[in-house]
Amino acid sequence: MAGSRDHAARTDPVAPVRLRVLIADERPHPLERMAEVASSLGHDVVAVELDVSATANAIREQSPELAIVGLHKDEEHALELVQEIVDEGICPVIVQTGGEDPEFAARAAERGAFGFSTPVEAQALQAAIEIAVRRFEELEELTEQVENLEGAMRRRAIVERAKGITMERDGVDERRAFEVLRERARSSNRTLVDVAQAILDEQR
User: Fold this and answer.
1) How confident is the model at residue 184 (pLDDT cuts 50, 70, 90)?
2) Stated pTM of the model
3) Which of 24, 30, 43, 87 has the greatest count of CB atoms below 10 A from its CB?
4) pLDDT tens track for 158-167
5) With contact defined as beta carbons under 8 Å apart, do 1 and 136 qualify?
6) Cross-strand pairs, 66
7) pLDDT per position as a tens digit, 107-160
8) Three-state SS letters, the chain
């Protein structure tokens, strides 16, 4: 979701986001209405879809930066659309409803919806979009941090296991084992983790 948002952030820190938007709804007329409202806000509507399979294909082909799912009477259909978009992991999802339904809101949130908008009104929709985009960005940053932390922990575990093997094999203490790994890494122009992994592979 970098393109248009990054540009807006560089030129005007308070400028509203302008996104590639996919809209999914069980009914054609509300679908068209939502597309008109989104377009009037300056968003690029890249796909409008009615069923789950078409939505899935559109997500993969169009790579939208935001998805809006309309809800009328068929809650299960709306939830399936939300789930399909969330499973692709490409963009945040907003559910547009005709009224307040806390129970449905909770179910949609469980499926991964990032926000809600009601009724189909430009300012309300843009406000929901702003909030959803920010929350999605925060989630992406948190996910990246977790992945980096998990990666660091895995790398450390590899080095620790290699140190243990070196200590047992060479009859040295932990400090000397680490120095052996580091010297081997320098002499072979490899990273410490690569050297440690090679030692683990030798034991298989």
Assistant:
1) confident
2) 0.58
3) 24
4) 888 998 999 9
5) yes
6) 21
7) 888 887 887 777 667 888 888 888 888 888 887 788 778 877 887 888 888 888
8) CCHHHHHHHHHCCCCCCCCEEEEECCCHHHHHHHHHHHHHCCCEEEEEECCHHHHHHHHHHHCCCEEEEECCCCHHHHHHHHHHHHHHCCCCEEEECCCCCHHHHHHHHHHCCCEEECCCCHHHHHHHHHHHHHHHHHHHHHHHHHHHHHHHHHHHHHHHHHHHHHHHHHCCCHHHHHHHHHHHHHHHCCCHHHHHHHHHHHCC
Residue 43's pLDDT band, with cuts at 50, 70 and 90, is: very high
Query: What domains lie within the chain, and their CATH numbers?
Result: 3-120 (3.40.50.2300), 147-202 (1.10.10.10)
Per-residue tokens: 91: 């963009």
Q: State both tokens at 187.
A: 């002499």
